[in-house]
Amino acid sequence: MATNDFLDINAALKVGEVAKRGDVTIATLHFYEKKELIFSNRNNGNQRLYSREVLRRIAIIKAGQNVGIPLIEIKQALSVLPKFAAATQEDWQVLSSNWRATLDAKIKNLVLLRDQLENCIGCGCLSVKDCPIRNPGDVLGRQGSGAVLLRAKP
Q1: Beta-ladder partners of 50
Q2: pLDDT in tens, the chain (154 residues)
Q3: The model scores a pTM over 0.85
Q4: Which of the 8 DSSP states describes residue 80?
Q5: Do 54 and 30 form a contact (C-beta atoms < 8 A)?
Q6: Alpha carbon distance 60, 81 (integer Å)
Q7: Please, which residues have CB within 8 angstroms of residue 39's CB and are 6 or more apart in sequence?
């Protein structure tokens, strides 16, 4: 990426400033950048410079992570947004509505786990005949005895 092709140098934020304002570590910023979740330019001294809009992207990443959205899904969601422009309220509405199905499925599974937890604690391997969470209908029993889910795959 060409130096300074997206930002006003006077308004740019250095990596430490972004880390502080985004409440993340510098290593996290480097990780996000490596995963193409955020983007920077370099100045003549090869220091990263970020547009102020990166703070909104970081907020979206953190919001997604806080509710259990995998980074790959966050990246897919962010890919439709301009790299160097702030996400709008409308953008957030689209992103959050797309994540709703994922979150609904996670909630359903967590409620099932919570409601059935007493039956699973003693089993250990979760492959008993009456485990409605990991082994409904004892399908794992046909694969052998013991913790079949934990066996190394050939």
Answers
A1: 13
A2: 333 345 556 678 999 999 999 999 999 999 999 999 999 998 888 899 999 889 999 999 999 999 889 999 999 988 888 777 778 888 888 888 888 888 898 888 888 777 776 665 555 555 455 566 666 666 667 777 766 666 655 5
A3: no
A4: T
A5: no
A6: 12
A7: 1, 6, 33, 50, 54, 83, 84
Give the length of the chain.
154
CB 116 within 8 A of CB 132: yes
Through-space distance between the first and last CA atoms of the chain, rounded to whole angstroms = 43
User: Are 125 and 149 contacting, i.e. CB atoms less than 8 angstroms apart?
Assistant: yes
Q: Which amino acid is at 92?
A: W
> Please, what is the angle between helix 26-34 and helix 54-66, to 10°?
90
The token pair at 51 is 């547009």
Q: Tokens standing for 94?
A: 């689209």
Q: Tokens 């983007």 — which residue?
A: 39
Give the pairing type, strands 48-50 and 13-14.
antiparallel
Residue for token pair 């308004």: 11
